């Protein structure tokens, strides 16, 4: 019975222990450095005793937290009771639950368990609730109790019609649409992801924690003369560091997105991925708010793109701007066919209205003027090498022109398509009924040139997202506004 109070699997104690250990990693490492440098005898005994008590405390907290955690379903709500010193209760109505995702970390895989995350609309960057260790059978029962029957009365006719079709039809069931990313695809994803910057940042942040223990200055002074006399040595070291960071980022990407599979099951998308940590999430087609097609500067020249789903009740992840990856890598020419197969209500059109030529100067000025203002003092105070800073002006000009060329819009009977670029080119497909608000903005200088900024807002797990195109023709902006506000006569203006 789901109404009976239940505890998680005892493996939740191990999960909690490693989670706290990870959060306290830097203090523990620093303590180990101090302890190893302390003398033997009495101080050595104190050091060992503190370490033993520390780890024993982590285990004890995990055991008590597990023992005092209960969950159950009652009166159409998922209820939880938890807390070591202060008891807390949490009730989540079934109506608010949007998705129930499962994942398998190392600990869960050892015990044959899964982690369950419950997502709600407007739930923020984190899951609304989490059960860190339950059996796969229990996860299936929770999914059935919380999702499949929460709208039973509303969907009775739909279920009935499907049942009649299955009973009357003697034809074998149609194979479900499936997408599986190959290892070659994942290698290209890792190669062009730009993850090298993340790896370098992590290494720098990690090593900076030990500047009190590692004599960086002495090392630099010892090798300073060697480095000054060999430009090739400096270049080789930089190349090796960048190359190793690039390889690490590829390996991390392939481990994270290995076995990436998308299966369309009626009105749901089942997405699974991961080698070390397996994750599975379910996205209802009814909850999709928008489709975003992204091309970073490394992928666009080769005609590749990543397709994201913007969904209500899905927190996504920081690495993907809190969006859910639907297809990690596709040829742009194949995007339309894949959308038609998996999310047929969204259509990508190539007939996009660009921006007027008078908008181009504004895109150039926005990036080139700040680059000039920064380059002049650098060139003045750091001659002659400071003149290299003026390269940023040319880069700003190229990026500004690219932003101008890639910006555009298109509207159909029920869909708005917006294209824009910051560093990566993004194309957003939004159904009219999913747009929470539409805004036309006009600054003083835009008014002089008869230009508008158009902005569409949708609902996501973060509460909302905005997509905008800057410096659209004034007449075009009014046309889109009329389309959204139902003032325009019916018809397709795509």
If you had to describe this structure to a student in words, what would you say it looks like?
The protein has 494 residues and is of the alpha+beta class. It has 4 domains: 11-166, no CATH class; 183-257; 261-355 and 407-484, no CATH class; 357-403. Helix content is 43%, strand content 25%. The strands form 4 sheets. A 7-stranded antiparallel sheet has the order 6-5-4-10-9-8-7. It starts with 10 loop residues before the first helix and ends in a 10-residue tail after the last helix. Mean pLDDT is 83; it is low at 156-166 and 487-494. Pfam families: bPH_2. The chain crosses the membrane at residues 21-39, 45-70, 186-210, 230-255, 363-381, 387-404. This is PH domain-containing protein. Residues 66-145, 259-336, 404-484 form the YdbS-like PH domain. InterPro entries: UCP026631 (IPR014529), YdbS-like_PH (IPR005182).
